[in-house]
Inverse folding.
C-alpha cells in the first residue's frame, strides 16, 4: 500500500499569478494511492488547473474532491468582491464529485453553484476510499456547522478547525464559539499526540505533531470554558 500525499501552498504551488492567493496562505492537499494512481483534492480552490497539473505531473488521476468546509477560499465562490474558481471548475474538468459533511452541503451548493447530485454527503465516522487508502471523516463544528477533518493513518488534515497557531474564526456566519471549544477539547483532544496536523492555512507553520501543537498553540492551552469565553470575547 503506497500513500500519495502532497501539501500545496497557495501562491507557491498554485495561484502564483494571484497576489491574494499568496496572502491567504491556503493549503490544498492531494491524497491518493500510488498503486492505482488515483487521488482526491482536499479544498480545491484558487487555481484548479495548477492543482490538476501537479497531480498529472505526478502521474496521478483526480477521481474526487473533499471539502473541509464551505468557505470560498476552500471550495471557490465569491469572497471580498472577487470570484474564486474552485470545486465547480474541478467538477467540470475532472467530472468528479465533492465529499462533504451533510450540514455543509447547503452552504457548498450556495457558494459553488454545484447541485446536490455533485455532492456526496457524510456523517462523522464515515470512511472515504481512494484506491486502498482510507480516510476517516471527523465532524469538527465551530468554524462552520459542517466543518470536518480527515484522518489518514498518522495525519490529520484539519481545514480551518485548527492551525499550528490559532484556530478557525468563530465570528463568521455559522461559527459557534462553544462548539469550537468542544471540538478542540473533546473531538481533537482525544486524538494521539503523534498524529501530524496538516492545517488549512500556513498560520504558524506547515505541519507539526498534535502533541507539540498542544504545547505551543494558546487556543489548546485554555483551562476551562470560562477562560475560553473570556478569550473569545
Ligand atoms: Fe474558513
Amino acid at each position: 500500500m503506497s500513500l500519495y500525499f502532497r501539501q500545496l501552498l497557495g501562491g507557491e504551488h498554485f495561484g502564483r499569478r494571484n497576489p491574494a492567493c499568496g496572502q491567504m496562505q491556503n493549503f490544498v492537499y492531494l491524497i491518493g494511492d500510488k498503486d492505482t494512481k488515483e487521488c482526491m483534492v482536499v479544498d480545491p480552490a484558487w487555481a484548479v488547473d495548477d492543482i490538476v497539473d501537479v497531480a498529472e505531473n505526478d502521474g496521478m488521476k483526480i477521481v474526487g474532491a473533499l471539502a473541509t468546509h464551505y468557505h470560498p477560499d476552500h471550495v471557490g465562490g465569491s469572497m471580498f468582491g472577487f470570484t474564486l474558481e474552485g470545486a465547480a471548475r474541478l467538477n467540470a474538468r475532472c467530472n468528479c464529485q465533492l465529499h462533504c459533511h451533510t450540514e455543509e452541503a447547503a452552504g457548498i451548493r450556495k457558494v459553488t453553484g454545484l447541485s446536490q447530485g455533485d455532492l456526496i454527503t457524510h456523517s462523522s465516522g464515515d470512511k472515504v476510499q481512494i484506491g486502498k487508502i482510507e480516510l476517516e471523516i471527523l465532524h469538527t463544528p465551530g468554524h462552520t456547522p459542517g466543518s470536518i477533518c480527515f484522518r489518514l493513518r498518522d495525519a490529520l488534515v484539519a481545514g480551518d478547525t485548527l492551525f499550528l497557531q490559532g484556530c478557525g474564526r468563530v465570528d463568521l456566519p455559522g461559527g459557534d464559539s462553544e462548539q469550537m471549544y468542544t471540538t478542540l477539547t473533546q473531538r481533537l483532544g482525544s486524538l494521539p499526540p503523534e498524529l501530524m496536523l496538516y492545517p488549512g492555512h500556513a498560520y504558524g507553520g506547515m505541519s507539526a505533531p498534535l502533541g507539540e501543537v498542544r504545547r505551543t498553540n494558546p487556543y489548546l492551552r485554555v483551562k476551562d470554558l470560562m477562560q475560553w469565553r473570556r478569550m473569545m470575547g
